[in-house]
């Protein structure tokens, strides 16, 4: 009977060791959480940098478009004045 109990205790100890090795300890989980936060911070920084570059390009394009629009309106006004004067 003692031999049978010894085998069961040995099996139970093995099972507990396997279960314990499969679970993450709190400090390992905290380390993983820290790594994930750092990763998200890096991704967020890259996204913010990309958005800032895109905003700068949009501002530059808008300024160029406004310059061309003003120049074309000025040219049309000059054309109308010339047509009125010479016709």
Task: Write up this protein.
This is DUF1640 domain-containing protein. This protein has 87 residues and is mostly helical. The chain has one domain (2-86). Helix content is 94%, strand content 0%. It is built from 2 helices and no strands. It has helices at 2-22, 26-86. It is rod-shaped. The relative contact order is 0.04. The model has no long low-confidence stretch (mean pLDDT 89).
Essential attributes:
87 residues, mainly alpha, 2 helices, 0% strand, DUF1640 domain-containing protein
Structural class: mainly alpha
Quick one: biggest sheet? none
With helices defined by DSSP (H or I, 4 residues minimum), what is the helix count? Answer: 2
Instruction: Summarize model confidence as the mean pLDDT.
Output: 89
Residue share in β-strands: under 5%
Radius of gyration: 37 Å
User: In total, how many beta strands?
Assistant: 0
Flag low-confidence runs: none
The total domain count is 1
Task: Specify the overall morphology.
Answer: rod-shaped
SSE order, one letter for each helix or strand: HH
Helix content: over 70%
Instruction: Kindly report how far apart the N and C termini lie.
Output: 124 Å
Protein name: DUF1640 domain-containing protein
